[in-house]
Amino acid sequence: MYALQQEQANFTPPKKYPSLIDPAVIKAASQIYYTYCEVHPEIVGKAVGVAISRVTHRGKVIFTQYPVLLPQECFVPLNQIESYMY
Questions:
Q1: pLDDT digit string (tens) for the chain, length 86 residues
Q2: What does R_g of the chain's alpha carbons equal in angstroms?
Q3: Is 43 helix (H, G, I), strand (E, B) or coil?
Q4: pTM value?
Q5: N or C terminus: which one in the chain shows less Cβ crowding within 10 Å?
Q6: What is the torsional sign of CA 61, 65, 70, 73?
Q7: How is residue 51 annotated by DSSP?
């Protein structure tokens, strides 16, 4: 019993590694984000990323830190969108 408690006290959660995202999905997410920025220039800089469907490549700009995604969707963070050159 003591060993079990000791293991729990020393437990560190696994590191979260960035998931690999299909380049076509990143390109579609960047197009969605940049189109949104052109249409709504007053909101630039407040987004955290884009939630996008892996199947249809349709998505929405996300402003909350923890987005809720549908099963076929993935989240592309803004830093990955901005670093992508197309």
A1: 555 555 556 656 555 545 688 899 999 999 999 999 999 888 767 889 999 999 999 999 999 988 899 999 999 999 898 886 55
A2: 18
A3: helix
A4: 0.72
A5: N
A6: positive
A7: E
